[in-house]
Amino acid sequence: MFTGLIETTGKIESVQDTGDGKIFKVITAWKDPDLKNGDSISVNGACHTVTSFQESGNKFEFYSSYKTLELTNFGSFQVGTKINLERSVQPHTRMGGHFVTGHVDLTGTILLSEEKDSGKVRRFVISHDPIFTKYFAVRGSVTVDGISLTIVDSKPGEFELVLIPETLIVTNASEAWKVGAKVNLEVDLIARYLEQLGKYK
């Protein structure tokens, strides 16, 4: 489980194709590095397991299966790609974002990226499969590349976000979210469970 509050960013140092998936090596700089083998980590919003680490986790590896590569934007990762990182929550962790499972539901595409309010914020419009529109409620939560964000507008097949400078600084959004870029989306967990419960009334 994660919160959607990005702890740090990292960069892909190497990519190894295994035939059925890929092994990614990441270099980063945690404020308090403590990764170990078997730890769960959110990489651009997708939960992965640390398979190897060095320097207390400032260098680590994880494996993505072919299915993960199909469902996420990981297939486009190359050396130098900037990624969002968050370690799994602990009992004392503040829930400053929302409940994030790390199970990516779909990818979206950046349709628009523009500065607003004299550059104080940046507005993004993201397109997605219209079948998921029901999950994207105005003022509701969504996870985009692992970031917990609030939807400011929603229409069939697209929704709008406004990111403040702090979010742009501590995440990969300012660098990676160019028009046409693919982003990982996870719908709100509560909405998903409510829909499931409603099927059995």
From TrEMBL:
<comment type="function">
    <text>Catalyzes the dismutation of two molecules of 6,7-dimethyl-8-ribityllumazine, resulting in the formation of riboflavin and 5-amino-6-(D-ribitylamino)uracil.</text>
</comment>
<feature type="repeat" description="Lumazine-binding">
    <location>
        <begin position="1"/>
        <end position="98"/>
    </location>
</feature>
<feature type="domain" description="Lumazine-binding">
    <location>
        <begin position="99"/>
        <end position="198"/>
    </location>
</feature>
<feature type="repeat" description="Lumazine-binding">
    <location>
        <begin position="99"/>
        <end position="198"/>
    </location>
</feature>
<comment type="pathway">
    <text>Cofactor biosynthesis; riboflavin biosynthesis; riboflavin from 2-hydroxy-3-oxobutyl phosphate and 5-amino-6-(D-ribitylamino)uracil: step 2/2.</text>
</comment>
<dbReference type="Pfam" id="PF00677">
    <property type="entry name" value="Lum_binding"/>
</dbReference>
<dbReference type="GO" id="GO:0009231">
    <property type="term" value="P:riboflavin biosynthetic process"/>
</dbReference>
<feature type="domain" description="Lumazine-binding">
    <location>
        <begin position="1"/>
        <end position="98"/>
    </location>
</feature>
<protein>
    <recommendedName>
        <fullName>Riboflavin synthase</fullName>
        <ecNumber>2.5.1.9</ecNumber>
    </recommendedName>
</protein>
<dbReference type="GO" id="GO:0004746">
    <property type="term" value="F:riboflavin synthase activity"/>
</dbReference>
<keyword id="KW-0808">Transferase</keyword>
<dbReference type="InterPro" id="IPR001783">
    <property type="entry name" value="Lumazine-bd"/>
</dbReference>
<dbReference type="InterPro" id="IPR017938">
    <property type="entry name" value="Riboflavin_synthase-like_b-brl"/>
</dbReference>
<keyword id="KW-0686">Riboflavin biosynthesis</keyword>
<dbReference type="InterPro" id="IPR026017">
    <property type="entry name" value="Lumazine-bd_dom"/>
</dbReference>
<keyword id="KW-0677">Repeat</keyword>
<dbReference type="InterPro" id="IPR023366">
    <property type="entry name" value="ATP_synth_asu-like_sf"/>
</dbReference>
